[in-house]
Design a protein that fits this description.
The structure holds two protein chains of two kinds. By secondary structure, chain A is of the alpha+beta class. Chain A has seven helices and eight strands. Classes of the chains: A alpha+beta, B alpha+beta. Chain A: InterPro entries: CENP-P (IPR027801).
Chain lengths: 287, 324
């Protein structure tokens, strides 16, 4: 009899303790999410903490490792950003619902992967089962600057439909790496052959024009598109277009007609850089 | 209780000394035992040699009984105290909960009024600011897990965490502890044995860690997706599947039977799915061979005697089973 009364009280205590823990977390989360400190304020705090640390260590009290902890976390984060090429510039999180076995958070994230920027919004549902935790991404919406590209928008809507956030980042990385590679290659040739190479759309455009100033009217256009399919597989597509003035056309007909085919086989044999380099050499030797 | 132990020891080792002392704790309970005294006396006379033992045994029993009563009283007292303690704790916690609830309510009200940003009017301490920032960086690091690759620097290198997912559902994560000096080496990992980690490491680890992780992540994600699909099939369609679904550890070969209802009959289908590309979660083999087999079977029925057609099925089944 007595033990059963005790049991009732004990159960009550346990449920109260759980409730308190949950409420405290809710309060903390909300406090965390609704406050904002600028980088400047954080720097000031670090400095004032350093001073306190000085005073404490002189007074032989044990120094707090808060600053060290923050610095180590920041080092990890900046390493990851550098390693993956994915930079988060801002991140907002709001806890929408929190119970003992269910948490719903809304996230807003913006950043860039190499030179491509993105904004994301999604919901994260965390459910605690008997022994494991399941996490599901839903309500994903993605905005990308290069959204006009039809390939990219098809890929993005397929990702949004399935809430496939992880696949988005994995594909974005390889897509952005090709983007970066193309930019670097264009930059390299522009710097090496400034008289011949022009970039009408700048470094982020998808073509370059090769032109020999001694032969006005004769141009080669190297188009380099980066294709991404709905599954997120990325492939570079290169092609050559020729522009030849009419008087040249007659006696160089055969050569210019064969140029695109030749360029394609050169790509397969030597790779992108060497193929473009060869084209440039041909143009600069043209008399 | 403390008196009990040594006393008993004494009574067994030194009966004479114990006799005078042993009376004391049991005295209050002696009255009912006196009725037994006559009997005891008789017994004692009979067993003269053992007589002291008889008394002592009795005393011991009394002592034990007294002790039991004490224990009960003590227990009741303890129980009462415990109950009082529990009640007080419940009260204390209820108060704490109500206070906290009020605090949360106020916070929410304030946030609604201010449309989001509600900073504390009081100047926050440096410690509070740093704690806030730590939580923020931690949250961002957690979000990094959703990109598929996260990790932290260690003393000798990096410990990467590769996470996997199928569509929006996050699945298992795997760890890879890398030593970066003097050369890149895998120190420890939690990657399943059937993933060709060594081959991949040999191919990419020294030259391109990014590429290595990306290919490894492809393998792990494809494996996780295949396993997830097989689990889903078993969980949600077990009524349609005949028998059990069989799979290998890499989950790139699935064998199961299912029935296709057609008019009033059902057709049993035997499926063997082969995922030839280890980085893919879609089979490379099955659908074509299924269609082919169905076509071949109906073709045979139209051209060969029934029992011969079936003989050829079982022959084909055996040779297929024997094939690597």
């Amino acid at each position: 009899m007595d033990t059963s009364i005790c049991q009732v009280y004990e159960d009550k205590i346990q449920s109260l303790e759980e409730e308190i823990k949950l409420l405290a977390e809710k309060y903390e989360d909300s406090q965390q999410e609704s406050t904002f400190f600028s980088d400047e304020e954080i720097l000031m705090s670090k400095k004032s903490f350093e001073r306190e640390f000085w005073r404490e260590s002189q007074g032989c009290e044990s120094p707090s490792d808060l600053k060290a902890q923050l610095e180590s976390l920041e080092t990890d984060l900046s390493f990851l950003m550098k390693f993956t090429g994915i930079q988060f510039t801002s991140h907002f999180k709001k806890t929408m619902e929190k119970t003992r076995n269910r948490t719903v958070q809304k996230h807003r994230l913006s950043g860039n992967c190499h030179s491509l920027s993105f904004q994301l919004e999604f919901q994260l549902l965390e459910m605690q089962n008997k022994e494991n935790v399941s996490v599901v991404v839903s309500d994903l919406s993605i905005t990308m600057e290069s959204g006009e590209d039809s390939d990219v928008s098809k890929f993005v809507s397929s990702i949004e439909e399935h809430g496939n956030l992880l696949a988005f980042f994995r594909s974005l990385s390889s897509y952005a790496e090709w983007y970066e590679h193309r930019r670097c290659t264009f930059l390299h040739f522009k710097a090496k052959y400034p008289d011949i190479v022009t970039l009408p759309e700048g470094l982020l455009g998808d073509y370059i024009i090769l032109r020999n100033s001694k032969h006005s009217g004769f141009e080669l256009m190297v188009v380099w598109k980066i294709h991404i399919d709905e599954e997120g597989r990325t492939t570079p597509l290169l092609d050559l277009l020729t522009k030849v003035p009419e008087q040249v056309l007659e006696w160089k007909m055969a050569t210019t007609e064969n140029a695109p085919t030749g360029f394609r086989s050169m790509l397969l044999l030597f790779g992108i850089e060497a193929a473009i380099e060869n084209l440039i050499k041909v143009v600069s030797l043209e008399k | 209780e403390e008196e009990e132990g040594p006393l008993r020891k004494k009574s067994s080792c030194f009966p004479h000394i114990a006799s005078s002392q042993g009376m004391e704790p049991g005295q209050g309970e002696l009255t009912p035992a006196f009725s037994l005294a006559g009997e005891w006396q008789g017994k004692m006379e009979e067993e003269k040699a053992y007589s002291p033992h008889g008394v002592f045994a009795h005393l011991e029993m009394l002592e034990a009984r007294a002790h039991e009563a004490d224990m009960k009283e003590e227990e009741a007292k303890q129980q009462e105290e415990k109950l009082a303690r529990l009640k007080a704790r419940v009260q204390e916690l209820t108060l704490q909960r109500d206070e906290l609830q009020a605090k949360v309510d106020l916070q929410q009200k304030r946030q609604l009024e201010k449309e989001g940003v509600a900073s504390d009017p009081a100047q926050p301490s440096a410690q509070a600011v740093l704690e806030w920032k730590i939580k923020r960086v931690k949250a961002m690091l957690q979000v990094f897990c959703l990109t598929g690759i996260s990790g932290k620097l260690t003393k000798q290198g990096v410990c990467f965490c590769i996470s996997t997912a199928y569509e929006g559902t996050c699945l298992d994560s795997y760890y890879l502890d890398l030593l970066t000096k003097p050369e890149v080496r895998i120190l420890r990992h939690s990657i399943p044995i059937f993933i060709p980690l060594e081959q991949l490491a040999k191919k990419y680890l020294q030259t391109d860690i990014r590429r290595f992780l990306s290919v490894l992540s492809n393998h792990l994600n494809a494996y996780a997706a295949r396993k997830y699909q097989a689990d889903q099939l078993q969980e949600h369609f077990s009524d349609q599947i005949e028998g059990t679904l069989q799979t290998n550890s890499l989950c790139n070969l699935l064998v199961f039977n299912y029935n296709v209802p057609n008019k009033s009959k059902t057709f049993p289908f035997n499926v063997r799915l082969l995922y030839g590309d280890l980085c893919s979660s879609i089979p490379t083999k099955a659908p074509a061979s299924l269609a082919e087999m169905a076509a071949a079977h109906s073709d045979l029925f139209c051209h060969v005697a029934l029992h011969k057609a079936f003989r050829s099925f079982s022959d084909a089944g055996q040779s297929a089973a024997g094939a690597p």
